[in-house]
Amino acid sequence: MHDVVVIGGGAAGLSAALVLGRARRSVLVVDAGEPRNQPAAHMHGFLSRDGMPPGELLAVGRAEVAGYGGEIRSGRAVSARRNGTGFVVELADGNEVSARRLVVTTGLRDELPPIEGLRERWGRDVAACPYCHGWEVRDQPIGVLGTDPRGAHLALLIRQWSADVTYFGSQLAEQDRAKLLARGVRIVDEDVVKVLADNDELIGVELTDGSCVKRSALFVPTVFSANDTLLTQLGAEHTEDGRTTVPGVYAAGNVVDPMAQVIIAAAQGAKVGMNVNSDLVLDEAAPERRVHGL
To answer: How far apart are CA 124 and CA 195, in angstroms?
Structure first.
């Protein structure tokens, strides 16, 4: 039995595993290999690692975890259950792994609106986070899709990076319209039905009235869909400091905090690693364990 099984090998999971490995805990990371930022060529806002490809950061992280005795296993966890004082995790290949504590860092999925051509550009010239992609498209003609009420606020933010911002959407509250106009954002009261690309580059959008508007980048508010099946199975709800309502189960990163950028997810994972180790230390120091020679 491992001290800890970490389910999810992104920034949060690897950071937790690194802290636990350095605390001389036996740690297994189960990684399905589907990070949220996989489509992106670079990640940003991570001090000392700004501009690094996401896959490179994870490769370095896996090597660091392994350097402290941590084990990385490729696979998908399909279920988790309590077994006595510990937990058992079933993998998609039929194998099971057990641990005294679980850390769930399974991230989330960005659900995009069903607009033709949008998914194909995702993570390149179509994005959701201005702090992650705004600098790369600064001073370019940018569009913001009003497929969600959050689109208006997103357009207000995007205006920080370009003077040429157009909001597309047939549904816009009057108070939001006033704010956008005050900020210098152009408003087009039509919905986008197709994203146009040429030579593998975004060139614009087609609207419901058949017209086309040239744009070189698009921002879209996505729907966050947490990969929280395992937490649900365990009846574990996130509380604070990475803890959940189920003793021994912890969670960090986008699975519980959809707005967390990579550096924030990594910090959450590190904090969880410390809390898990403290939890194990207190368990090992319990008087009843000494009485029974444990």
So the answer is: 13
pLDDT at residue 287 above 80? Answer: no
pLDDT of residue 216: 98
Beta bridge partners of 197: 202
- Domain pair 2-110+223-291 / 113-219, same fold: yes
CA torsion angle for 149, 154, 159, 161 (degrees, to 10)?
Answer: -160
**How is residue 157 written in tokens?**
């933010």
Query: What superfamily in CATH does domain 2-110+223-291 come from?
Result: FAD/NAD(P)-binding domain (3.50.50.60)
Yes or no: say if 87 and 233 are a contact pair by the CB < 8 Å rule.
no
Task: Kindly tell me if the per-residue pLDDT of 36 is higher than 50.
Answer: yes
Burial letters 176-209, b for 16+ CB under 10 A, else e? beeebeeeebebbebbbeebbbeeeebebbbbee
DSSP state of 157: H
List strands edge to edge, sheet with 201-207: 192-198, 201-207, 212-214
What DSSP designation does 178 have? H
- Phi/psi for 205 (5° steps) reads -135, 150
Residues facing 30 on adjacent strands:
7, 73
pTM for the model stands at 0.94
Q: What confidence tens digit (pLDDT) does each residue in 129-143 have? A: 999 999 999 999 999
Q: Which helix (H) or strand (E) holds 6?
A: strand 2-7
What is the average pLDDT across 241-260? 96
CA–CA separation, 239 and 12 (whole Å): 17
Residue spans of the domains in the chain: they are: 2-110+223-291, 113-219
Tell me the fold of 113-219. FAD/NAD(P)-binding domain (3.50.50)
Q: What are phi and psi of 20, to 5 degrees?
A: -70, -40
